[in-house]
Design a protein that fits this description.
Radius of gyration: 24 Å
Distance between the termini: 57 Å
Number of helices: 1
Number of strands: 9
Structural class: mainly beta
Strand order of the largest sheet: 1-3-4-5-6-7-8-9
Strand content: over 45%
Order of helices and strands: HEEEEEEEEE
Amino acid sequence: MATILQNYLLIISILLCSTANGEETSYINTSGHKRSQLRQKLTHFRVYWHDIVGGRNPTSVPIVKPPSAKNFAGFGQINMIDNPLTTGPDLSSKVVGKAQGFYGQASQEEVGLLMAMNFVFTEGKYNGSTITLLGRNAVFNKVREMPVIGGSGLFRFASGYAQARTHSFDLKNGDATVEYDVFVRHY
């Protein structure tokens, strides 16, 4: 009898401690939607990313300079961006959003960037929605692939990839236009 009473008291004290420590499960909501009921979509779009580092209104500015001038690749430099995204390669093409985030020179041997940016859409069906890209960009490769790791709005639960191809690069001022082909799965 004493063993049963001890076990009963032990169970009661465990239950009391688990609710007394402030942990709740009321944040869990099962809405009744099964994953199989949600239809996943694949969206493909192409935009042109304009990295403007020169002139009076740059959209890409260095926020951390490389620690050594001897460093060929600029290792350690970080740029913050607010780059226009357009439907065509010309900057005068229709602007459909902005690429906001940063890129940093993460390689000591080549121009290999760490890209962390959101594509923020401001026009059309996806106005107010975003996708987030995070990955390596080996700039001198013809095609670079970066993962889409998330999104918001119509791109909630997004995953996918983007292929980047340099359309133009100005050696004098460093301005670049890059074509992004993006493939996104979302609900």
